Each structure stands twice: as structure tokens, then as C-alpha cells.
Description:
Strand content: under 5%
Number of strands: 0
CATH class of the domain at 58-190: Mainly Alpha
CATH superfamily of the domain at 58-190: Tetracycline Repressor, domain 2
Amino acid sequence: MARTREFDTDAVVGSAMEVFWSRGFEATSVQDLVAATGIGRGSLYAAFGSKEGLYEAALSRYAARSTAAMAARLDRDEPVRVVLRELLLDLVDETVGDPARRGCLVTNSAVERLPHDRTAGRIVGDALDRVTEAVAGALRKGRERGELPRDADVTALADFVVTTIQGLRVQGKAGADRRRLATVVDTALAALPR
Length: 194
């Protein structure tokens, strides 16, 4: 007869997410995860199969939450440049306001785990696709209101904005200050067609 799990899987994934976000995959040991989650190695392996399995669950959770939050920030009835500026500056403030400068777990995973980790690659790719679509939606609204030229390529512009987001995340993690990152935001917004 199989034993019933004596721990909250959701809480374990949340605790593991914090460890992976702070340390990265390679620098996190199974013992670090055991200490952070409060479950034994056997339970960890029984529930997630491996360190990689727990990482994938943690990355999936982070990606779902962060992409939903960005989509909500972008789904507003305000001028597209205002919406994008506030989103980008909020991301800058989150990055520089974190004393540990952890950055974004999705971005960190792209840098650390790709291209050799196919599952992480799929999670990262899906997250970036969701953000790109949310940005494209905001740009489409702006185009419909005449804030962008009628022939503006919202797909290309959305890719540009998402690439800017990823660059801000990496630069912020590397220690760039708010002033420098805010200048990048202003430069990116100035590049949008009028």
C-alpha cells in the first residue's frame, strides 16, 4: 500500500523556487533543497523524480505567475506608450529593489540551462511567447487608437519590447543602477514608430 504524502507539494515547489531563483540550478544541491523544503531526499525524489523535476515545477510556477502579472499590467485602456513605460519601469524597480539582484528566473534559466535542457527550454519559450503576445495585444490596441502607424508591424515591435525586457533583466542582475536602466527604457520607447 502506497504511503500518503505528508507534505504540501505546492509549498515545497514554492520553497524550491526561491532557492533556484537565488542560486541557480547548478549551484543548488539536493541537500539545499532538502533544507529549504523540509522534506527528505526520498520524498523529494518520490514526488518530483529528480532535482531536474523539482526545478521544472518551480520554473513552471514562476513562469506562470510572472507572465500572468505582466499580461495584467499590459491589459489596460491607456495609451500604449504609457502602459509599456510603466511596465518596463516596474520591472526595473523590481530588479534594482531586490538586494540579492536575483533578476528573473525565466531569464536566468535561459542563460543557465539552454540549449541543453529541453524541458526548461520549452518552459522559457512558452513564457516568452505569452509575454510577446500580451505586448502585441497592447500594441494592437495602440495601433487601433492611432498611437502607432496603421502599417506598424506589432509582431516585430513586440519582439523588440520583449528583447528589451530581457536585456533590462540581465543588466539589472549585473548591477546596473536605476538611472541607467530608465535611460534604456526611454530609448526603447523612443524607437517605437509615431
